[in-house]
Amino acid sequence: MPQTPLSQHQERLAQDPRDAMAFEALEEHHYLRGDWSALERLYERRLTAELRNGSASEQARILVRLGQMLERGHGDVDAALRRYREAAERAPHFRPALTALRKAHASAGRWELVLQIAERELEMPLPGRARAELHLACGDTWLRHAGDEDQALCHFRLAAQDDPKNGEAWVHLAGALERAGESEEAARSWECAMPLLGGSERAQARITLARLVELWFDDDARAAALYHEAIRDDPKRHDALSALTDLAARRGDWNEVLNLQTRRFELTADAGERSRIAYGAARGRVEHADDALGALPWIERAFELSAAEGAIGRAMLLELMVETARVAHTTGHTNEAAELYERALGMDADNADALAGVAETRYELGDLDAATDAVQARLAIPGRDERRTLHVAISAAGFETRGELEEALAGYREVLAADPGHDAALAGAARILEAQDAYDEAAVLMDDWAKRTNDPNLRAERLTRAAQLARDAGADDLELGERLEAALQADPSRGDAWLLLVQVRYEAGYEDEALDASRRALATVREPNLRAELLATRATVLEERGEVRAAAGAWATAAAEQPEDPQPLACAMHLLRADGDWKSAARLLERVGQRVPAEQGDRRADVLAELGKLRAGPLEDMDGGIAAYREALSSQPGREDVRETLEKLLLYRAEPIEASLVVEDRGLRSLLGGLLKN
Predict the structure, then answer these.
(1) Phi/psi of residue 207, each to 5°?
(2) For position 667, what pLDDT does the model report?
(3) DSSP state of 123
């Protein structure tokens, strides 16, 4: 029966226990099969042979292999240590024995022995890379297990010297130098390490150096460059993105901050961390850029993730939402602010700031019902309200809108007690007092309000209103005149003040003063409607004084100020006609007729009939009179008086045919009217 390779190796080793080829073949066979017992017998057999006539180094080599098999195969560390120790004793300069012994002691946590054995290894002649690795191991032991940073630093220095191309050596040295406070040398060590590293390790080195540069050398530009390089090495380095975000925020580059936060948010998988990033992005936009609208999508993201483990708490989100609403309000985005405040109330119905915000924004938007409900809830919360005056004013406005005038007036009075110059409260209180016929008190409020402004236009407006209220209260003309003169001193072009002054002077019987005031008023007032009213009052005074021509002139000028109103022209015409100036009266009637709208047929017919009467009568213009009556009949065909007068004029002018047509038309209309009546 032919032999197998295994049996051949076994036979050869039986013949010569030192047959290296057979030994190694059997060693590999047993190791790959995990047959540790067979492997142990193989090593023992070979060791016995070497002990008889082999070299010390070969004996040590076999002992080390036997120890490794005991340690790894059987887990018998103590037995392995005995073999390693025996190997080191037989061949003191056989480094693998010392290395194995050192590592076994390290596994058992015997760090003092580890360091002692390492010192023996370092006494041996070693190549640079091996010596550097050993120094690294010693430095790590001194640092992590003996707590001696100085010894660790010493070994890391030697490691970098022995193998300058060992990136790990430079990394350990840089870290040790940082801990020792040697920032400049640490930075140089990181610079040496980076070209020797790759990928995520180089990214970590750049980030560590960037933090060192940022902290100790105050060089934000260099630090930022390193962070960017780290991201190129490893695009998923959130810590580098976070550091760049902080740097951008420090220099106030909020566009860059937002871009970086967006990248961090997209790269981060952890929901809690995403929530924190979104919260920071929102808060940054609010606190540093006053960009409430830019913060809104980030708040939405933070809320969506708020249930995740490690996410921003809802209390913090509520606070941020209220703050964002405040910024939106102050930057003119009142609608968005109102919606945010209301959303905050959905989270906490008793939140004082949210209630106040809803009240203030809804008040500004004209939604008094919502504002009143919110402000009442806010005022019901115990404790200090720094904006109570405003909130009471809103509440009072709401009560006034709802017709609860006593409650509204009480609110306005409270506001005025705290802020005597509060515009809305003064105006509101004056309105309510006027509605309650308390004109005297309302006028006093308006007087006080006028004193509290430096704006001459506002002062004039308020003094004029005070005079109107005082007039309703029955104040004498002297008191009214003083108020109005003060108003006109503040704003000489105040038309309503001039008009009221003229009326007050006229009603008091001071015609000369009324005319003088109207003259001065017309020199400054520019509003056509007010000028027309001033002229009408002036015309009335002149007419009462018997100055008919001057009164007619005033009416005519009033008509020029308001061409669409036929009344001033009609008044002027009547005065001229009463004064016998038929031509001027007719001209004015023509202008009145032209200005009466066609749809007001009856009124236009009246004016044209009056014009026809003037032309056919005092002016002896028969043709003009007939034309006016025809036009009047065209404007209002049912006017029988106009038709009869026109018939008479035509007959008088010897136009019987046309007169008969008018008569026939009138008869036909009469017949049709009778038929319709029956």
Answers:
(1) -65, -45
(2) 47
(3) T
